[in-house]
Specification:
This protein is α+β, with helices and mostly antiparallel strands and about 80 residues long. The chain has one domain. The chain contains 2 helices and 3 strands; from the N terminus they run βββαα. A hairpin with an 8-residue loop joins strand 2 and strand 3. The chain is globular, with a radius of gyration of 13 Å. This is DUF4346 domain-containing protein.
């Protein structure tokens, strides 16, 4: 199990927000990333040390969710994370 979980949101100004929470039961503020597309967010995430802590499956899932969030901009639909 990974030590982190992610929350992906699309805000009203057409930006994707990625929040990273630690799985430890102590309350901490999330690490926040914001960008206009999935490529920017993946680049920002790659610069952070936590990228080494997540599994390959979790990384693939995160990429899929970021792509879904980006598609919402073109289809004017509501984004729901799986």
């Amino acid at each position: 199990m990974d030590n982190y979980y992610f929350l992906v949101r699309v805000n009203h100004s057409k930006k994707i927000e990625l929040y990273c929470f630690n799985n430890i039961k102590i309350y901490h503020y999330p690490i926040c990333f914001t960008g206009t597309n999935a490529n920017i967010l993946l680049y920002l995430l790659s610069l952070h040390k936590l990228i080494k802590s997540i599994s390959t499956i979790h990384g693939l899932y995160l990429g899929k969710e970021l792509c879904k969030a980006e598609i919402v901009f073109f289809t004017n639909q509501i984004y729901l994370q799986e």
